[in-house]
């Protein structure tokens, strides 16, 4: 009888802290041994010349989320988790959105029903708190945190989602009591609405004005306010999808004061700019997301945040809409004003190749920082470590094998999502995940889907290591 189900042989392993060469013995979905001459296995995977890394964890993903009348998100759980696997991810953390007047428990039931039996990689839901009633604050949230939904996102912008400062304080207080982690979308809603009205009155309605309506200062102000509110309550916060230096410096300053303030940035803030929103014929709608991509100086600032630890996680903020589709970016109202163009871009499969190529291959970060930013820190931040996010005896065998030498241009067909475009079309990347394994089972090998949907399951989480 074989000692292991699978042995990954001859690869170079990197974790967030170490780099070493050895074989990995996998049994029952777990890493069972790290060493040499591990003996027999049912399957031996040759990883010579390859990197063997913890599978990516993407802690900021939107799937099957209601997005306004007549608008449909391009990914369901099947296509979203498939795309995640093609991009070297083994766990994603989508949001369960509470709508106004809806119970959170009810919302969660619907999301579980959508995900059940559909997933290729593991999933774990965050909660979006849009209606913090007494019942939600006093009963539902504490019970849901106890059940393993240990993080919630709050919005400072978007109609129907934005919370007042008082409401943010209330949610943060529950997070403090229950040791949950609060994620904040920080943009000043009143300022955005004021600027949007003014732009529309001046006839400036093309997608490019989306960026004008949400300048860095609205993000900086809200970031400062979110941090201040968290300081009042004395609770850790994660400021998500940070796009520019001013917001990044707010986070750095808080960290230097000793506050538990964390930051996330995303690929769109490293390789896109607001110029991408300029295209004619609604081409610019492909890049409409919030906060919007900025300029080259902002890209440099985001790299600095990743290199210096101001940002601890690098996520995709995958929020896919089809472009050439009246239920997507070309929704009829969107042609009348950028205000109505669905916000969000796909990126779950492109996230890791972009950071590997632009970061590791170009020498901006080393391979260990890459692993920390794409897997380990997500696991620690959101209560999955050490079960996930590393390669260690006893951890889930969630592994991505990377060929560091492949160079190719990103194109939508490689990414296998439900959208009809990628905002990163044509970007040349070096390094590609050639095999993705979730709990010991190969899901993607050499560009072919081998996994079964339904193998991916929901994972209840512990409290954040930082809460
Ligand atoms: O434009 C974006 N980012 N859409 C997704 C929703 C969010 O704010 O994260
Ligand atoms: Zn957001
Ligand atoms: Zn998002």
Q: What small-molecule ligands were found?
A: N-(aminocarbonyl)-beta-alanine, zinc ion
Poorly predicted residue ranges = none
Task: Please identify the structural class as seen in this structure.
Answer: alpha/beta
Distance between the termini: 45 Å
Strand content: 15-25%
Outline, from the CA principal axes? globular
Query: What is the arithmetic mean of pLDDT?
Result: 98
Count of helix runs = 13
* Largest β sheet strand count, sense and barrel closure: 9 strands, parallel
DSSP summary, beta strand count: 20
Whole-number radius of gyration? Answer: 21 Å
Helix content: 25-40%
SSE topology sketch:
Elements: E1 4-9, E2 12-14, E3 19-21, E4 23-27, E5 30-35, E6 41-46, E7 51-54, E8 56-61, H1 77-86, E9 89-97, H2 104-115, E10 122-123, E11 126-128, H3 134-146, E12 151-155, H4 165-178, E13 181-185, H5 189-201, H6 209-213, H7 216-233, E14 237-239, H8 245-256, E15 261-265, H9 268-271, H10 296-308, E16 311-314, H11 351-361, H12 367-381, E17 399-409, H13 412-415, E18 428-438, E19 441-445, E20 448-449
Parallel strand pairs: 1-6, 2-7, 8-9, 9-10, 9-11, 11-12, 12-13, 13-14, 14-15, 15-16
Antiparallel strand pairs: 1-4, 2-3, 4-5, 7-17, 17-18, 18-19, 19-20
Helix pairs in contact: 3-4, 4-7, 7-8
């Amino acid at each position: 009888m074989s000692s292991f189900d699978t042995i990954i042989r001859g690869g170079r392993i990197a974790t967030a802290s170490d780099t070493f060469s050895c074989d990995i013995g996998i049994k029952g979905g777990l890493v069972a041994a790290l060493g040499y001459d591990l003996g027999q296995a049912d399957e031996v995977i040759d990883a010579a010349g390859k990197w063997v890394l913890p599978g990516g964890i993407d802690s900021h993903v939107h799937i099957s989320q209601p997005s306004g009348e007549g608008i449909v998100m391009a990914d369901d759980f099947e296509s979203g988790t498939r795309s995640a696997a093609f991009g070297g991810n083994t766990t994603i953390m989508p949001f369960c959105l509470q709508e106004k007047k809806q119970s959170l428990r009810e919302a969660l039931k619907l999301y579980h029903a959508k995900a059940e039996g559909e997933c290729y990689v593991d999933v774990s839901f965050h909660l979006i708190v849009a209606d913090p009633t007494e019942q939600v604050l006093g009963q539902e949230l504490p019970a849901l945190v106890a059940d393993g939904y240990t993080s919630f996102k709050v919005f400072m912008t978007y109609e129907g989602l934005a919370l007042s400062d008082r409401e943010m304080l209330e949610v943060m207080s529950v997070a403090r009591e229950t040791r949950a982690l609060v994620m904040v979308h920080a943009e000043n809603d009143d300022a955005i609405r004021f600027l949007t009205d003014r732009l529309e009155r001046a006839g400036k309605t093309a997608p490019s004005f989306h960026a004008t309506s949400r300048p860095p200062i609205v993000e900086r102000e809200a970031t400062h306010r979110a941090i201040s509110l968290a300081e009042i309550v004395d609770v850790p916060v994660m400021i998500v999808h940070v796009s520019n230096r001013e917001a990044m410096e707010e986070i750095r300053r808080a960290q230097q004061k000793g506050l538990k303030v964390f930051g996330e940035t995303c690929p769109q803030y490293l390789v896109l700019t607001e110029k991408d929103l300029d295209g004619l014929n609604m081409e610019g709608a492909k890049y409409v997301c919030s906060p919007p991509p900025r300029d080259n100086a902002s890209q440099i600032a985001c790299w600095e945040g990743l290199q210096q630890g101001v940002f601890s996680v690098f996520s995709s903020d995958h929020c896919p809409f089809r472009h050439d589709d009246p239920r997507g970016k070309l929704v009829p109202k969107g042609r009348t004003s950028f205000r109505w163009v669905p916000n969000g871009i796909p990126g779950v499969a492109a996230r890791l190749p972009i950071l590997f190529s632009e970061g590791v291959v170009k020498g901006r970060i080393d391979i260990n920082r890459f692993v920390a930013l794409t897997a380990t820190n997500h696991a620690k931040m959101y209560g999955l470590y050490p079960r996930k996010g590393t390669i260690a005896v006893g951890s889930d065998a969630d592994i991505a094998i990377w060929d560091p030498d492949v160079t190719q241009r990103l194109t939508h067909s490689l990414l296998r999502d439900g959208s009809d475009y990628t905002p990163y079309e044509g970007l040349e990347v070096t390094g590609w995940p050639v095999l993705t394994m979730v709990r010991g089972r190969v899901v993607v090998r050499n560009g072919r889907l081998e996994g079964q949907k339904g193998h991916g399951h929901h994972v209840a989480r512990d409290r954040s290591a930082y809460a």
